Amino acid sequence: MSRRRADSHGSLGPDDEVVPYSDDETDDELEPSIDEQPEGLPSVSQLSDLNWQVKANDRSFCKQPQFQKKFFLCFKRCKYAGNAIRTYKYNVITFLPLNLYEQFKRAANLYFLALLILQIIPEITTLPWYTTLVPLVLVLGITAIKDLVDDLARHRMDKEINNRKCEVLLNGRFQECRWMQIQVGDVVRLKKNDFIPADILLLSSSNPNSLCYVETAELDGETNLKFKMGLKVTHERLQEESQLQSFDALIECEEPNNRLDKFTGNMLWGRERFPLDLDNMLLRGCKVRNTDECHGLVIYAGSDTKIMRNGGKTRFKRTKIDYLMNYMVYTIFVLLILVCAGLAIGHTYWYQDVGSRAWYLYDGLNQTASYRGFLSFWGYIIVLNTMVPISLYVSVEVIRLGQSKFINWDLQMYYSEKDTPAKARTTTLNEQLGQIEYIFSDKTGTLTQNIMAFKKCSIAGRVYGDPNNPDGSPMGHDKRPVDFSSNIFAEKKFQFYDHHLISCIQSKKDKDVLEFFKLLSLCHTVMVEQREDDLVYQAASPDEGALVTAARNFGFVFLSRTQDTITISEMGTETTYEMLALLDFNSDRKRMSIILRFPDGKIRLYCKGADTVIYERLSPNSKYKDVTQEALDVFANETLRTLCLCYKDISRADFDAWSRKYKEASIAMRNREEALDEVYEQIEKDLLLIGATAIEDKLQDGVPETIAKLAKADIKIWVLTGDKKETAENIGFSCQLLTDDMQIYYGEDVNEKLSMRQNSRRNEPLGKPKKIKERFFPEGGKNALIITGGWLNEILYEKKKKRRRLRLRRLGKKPSPTSPQDSQPMNDHEKELRQQDFVDMACECGAVICCRVTPKQKANVVNLVKKYKKAITLSIGDGANDVNMIKTADIGVGISGQEGMQAVMSSDYAFAQFRYLQRLLLVHGRWSYIRMCKFLRYFFYKNFSFTLVHFWYSFFSGYSSQVAYEDWFITLYNVCYSSLPVLLVGLLDQDVNDKLSLMFPKLYLPGQQGTLFNYKNFFISLFHGIFTSLIIFFIPYGAFLQTMGQDGEAPSDYQSFAVVTASSLIITVNLQISLDTSYWTFVNCFAVLGSMAIYFGIMFDIHSAGIHVIFPSAFKFTGVASNALRQPYLWLTIILTVGISLLPVICIQFLCKTIWPSVGDELQRNRRKFERQAEEPPKEKPTFQRGARSRRSAYAFSHSRGYADLISTGRSIRQKPRARRDAPESIKEAPQAENI
């Protein structure tokens, strides 16, 4: 199937290469007079928005009255935040009241508190107060301890960050301070490898021209370095401590916001105004690299910093089962009220007809029947309170804690290379892991390792990279890598398997091969440092670093560069070339070039770039075009990222003429970039093709297999990334999220389909009944969406207006768009319909990739799916730009890799590799869901069975709130007699083992569909409990009716009846959980038998004469158990009761598993066969290949600018002022992966 190539430049829509921000102005809102502003200065409208003022070295400036804001009633505080961060919820004073307030927001806890108050009232109480107080205190205590432990961990993390050290200029000298003591307006000094404590304006550094290199892994997950630069005036005048002390500039800038890619401001110093932009800012969360020392001014601190603003709100997450459980508790409460009201009415009529006339029932209280019925109502509320099970919440917390520990202890989710185990950072969401429908994943650092490897190349029409012998013949099974040990500069980790290529280079016979690697070693913007007899490269992108490293291993070693020269070693011979011009890469050009003068005077242009732009500029006489195009198709089908390499010889006269135009364009005051691009076009033509490179953007291990398994479990995966479209699309194919038989739709296609749906909706006559929603892709087949952030804003109408535009509209200068012809929605309802249409369309697709999206857009996409699909979502990422998305999703997962810990700190679960996600969901998530559902079904059943016996008994006790059991049995039933077996099922039960869970992902579907626990299951448990309670009451009742014991004693008394019903209940519910247990261990067996043994042991103890003598009022069933249970026919009654209670259950389970077996039942039946299959070693799968030739353009290049501007201007190389000590001319250190 043919697909269009991803190219948006011909469309009239948004620029696919630009990262938009939904909270910023759009193109139509820019000032019309912006071109008339002096270059480099903010516009008038921008100046009006610069409301944030900072005075250097003046802490008192921010405390002035005009900077105060109200925060509560009439109380005011400074609008400038301190630098301390706070993520904890409680402190010493607020813990108890706040925690109790949060706990009593749970309806069940509030209900039991009211119940406890009722039990204190003597006229109402029918049970001792301790039967409610003990469980309530236990529930509140366990939950409070868990909350305290979680909050103490947050306290420790906050304390660790807030107590980091930094040098601050105070009282004329730099003093070591904690981060929490830093304030807006302070001048700070940072050193190499320091984390940046706040958003800081760079003033000066130890590097030339006050360059400062920072690693932004905490912000965006990228490990390649970015450069920042101080203003020329601060670079020249703020080098010494005394100069910094006298610095008194006023900074005017924008209010704190979440824009990571924008900063606007100006600096007033003396009588001059200097413009500021993002290149002058060091953002909190970044790390200083390759810079010995730098100085900066704190602009935003603490919660005002951009990284904190991007964090999003911390949301209290609860599972779907939690909500369902609450609604079921409300249902039980309503049933309880109705039952108690019915029994109270029954007592009223009974007292009128019977009770008031029976002299032996006279209690001396002259109360009316209605009043007695009223008291009976509250009495039954107390008696039947176990219908609303308080111990349910304690048991659920214990089970969740245990399941979290199993995740932490899982060695198969332990990453030994980084000594990183999986970590469940919350204990409240485990069963939700078994219900995930949508996964939203970041790309860089999550799906990929952000490591590029040179895999293959095509040179002069021949493809190299497959395992070949030196003579070009294919290797056998013994695939050994090329030995580069003879090259002293070789990178030890570099691996290449084509020995034929290295033999061609060493023979020096193939000039094209030599020219190919010479180009790679010369045409780049990489910087180099000599460190301990080793070369360390620092590239603007990992792609470029991989190409230069490849050339280095093949004998063409980039050694050094100055502003106008570049030196390489060509097969051991050192050669220096004069650099005449460096034409840098940008997202429009998709290529870069370098013009060099060779030692013999020859001038040559080397160029590398995307095949789509290179082929348009090739000379008609260029060779190898067709064969290279075939190679590019092969590389693209193998999901490799490709670049074309070409060159051109230039005469001296042509270069001189071009050079004059280049200099004119480079000093243009307006539209400089456009002018330079035009000049570049003039020289980059009639090129001669040499070949192409193929780079692998290394996926993390097991990513394609994980995505395939999750897809089989009907989990949809969306990739949300800030990367460019081509890169994101290529990774989609690499990880098999996209396949060759998919029809791919881009932003313009989506917009067109949605607009058609919107117009048809507008044209529908009013009052016409709505039709069933039509599918966007009625033809079926596999479809995928690839949409950029710009198109996302366009499609979803996420265009917030600037305040000035709103003022203009209020004044009537520009009407709001309300007509159907406008691009904007007519009203909020239409906007919601448009968003719902987009979600519907995206959910019809097999894969969705959103690229060039901002952190806020990532969160918005997640929120849209949650809102319109009511689906359970999971977000997974590794950088600070993923935090908002992680917090928005129902479950957030952080990758604890080399990119820092911001995502992990905000996540619910954390591990080191994406592939562990399949085990987290398909094993731990599924087990947790099954266990929790089974636990809840059984828990409701056993409580209904227990409580409703009181209901049946009331018909024979005059509806008098008399209990059917002994008080101590009621107290201990949920604590000792029936709790352990069901707890162990909730902790240990599994229908199939972990290998089969991964082998058959379809087992995950019941969790998504919610079939194991819903209102249907709840009512089944209710009717099952009613049936059991009927049997447990009426069979012993029938047995006791008009009977006589063997010894002439009458065991048909109330207390003996209570013992028989209680014994029947305990045996029944414990055998019932045995029938529901799928995975038997010694512990389960011990719990079931032990619970029954504990019941009989405690019963005989509390029915003994000894304890009655000590506590006569508390223990009144003296000798009842020993008397009743020595009657054989009572044991027969118990056996009959248990048998009749369980027989229907056994029959139903047998019929269901034989006639209507589920997938799990089939697996259990053939478990041994499947387990043997799971133990067999998996067959090797062939490398994934894409069959279509239509898609290339998977070019490998940085999506941000390189270092060309620094190199060509010499700003990174030129000598520094005398006031500063000399520093080496090159970068000091390559980035090292470190975590906070």
TrEMBL record:
Cofactor(s) for this UniProt protein: Mg(2+)
InterPro entries membership: ATPase_P-typ_cyto_dom_N, ATPase_P-typ_P_site, ATPase_P-typ_TM_dom_sf, ATPase_P-typ_transduc_dom_A_sf, ATPase_P-type_domA, HAD-like_sf, HAD_sf, P-type_ATPase_IV
P-type ATPase C-terminal domain mapped to chain residues: 904-1158
Single GO biological process annotation from the record: Golgi organization
One Pfam family it belongs to: PhoLip_ATPase_C
Highest taxon listed in the record's lineage: Eukaryota
Cellular compartments annotated: Endomembrane system; Membrane
EC number assigned by the record: 7.6.2.1
Keyword Membrane assigned: yes
Nucleotide-binding keyword on record: yes
The family this protein is said to belong to: Belongs to the cation transport ATPase (P-type) (TC 3.A.3) family. Type IV subfamily.
Protein name from the UniProt record: Phospholipid-transporting ATPase
Phylogenetic lineage: Eukaryota, Metazoa, Chordata, Craniata, Vertebrata
